[in-house]
Amino acid sequence: MVVFELLGSLGLGQQVMTAATIGAVAWYLFRGKSAASTFAAGIGTVTTVVMGTLATLAVAIALGWVDPDIAKLTGDVLAAGTTVLEWLASIPVDIIKGVLP
């Protein structure tokens, strides 16, 4: 880093270099914590939505509004999962096609 090279060229000593290194590590840990808290908040939101969806489905089944067919439901979930996985697998290919001629 430029800061470390500047401090080294000024000859400020090993203590200042150590303090600068510890400060840089603390800064990156702080930034990492911020990113992790944003990720955790997103996961919390997804969890809340899934719980609400499952509760609504349970009420609909209990009231007889939905007649669950496990074989059809399993097939639909597997088909949706396959579609999502194929889409995710195509993303790197699309990026490479956009970069390479």
What is the helix tally?
3
What is the average of the pLDDT values?
Answer: 82
Sketch the major β-sheet. Answer: none
The helix-strand sequence is: HHH
Strand residue percentage? under 5%
Quick one: overall form? elongated
The N- and C-terminal alpha carbons lie at a distance of 35 Å
Which descriptors would you attach to this protein?
101 residues; mainly alpha; 3 helices
List the helices and strands and how they pair.
Elements: H1 2-10, H2 14-62, H3 70-99
Question: What does this entry show, briefly?
Answer:
With 101 residues, the protein is mostly helical.
Account of the protein in words:
By secondary structure, the chain is mainly alpha-helical. It is 87% helix and 0% strand. It has three helices and no strands. Helix 1 runs antiparallel to helix 2 (14-62). The protein is elongated and about 80 Å long.
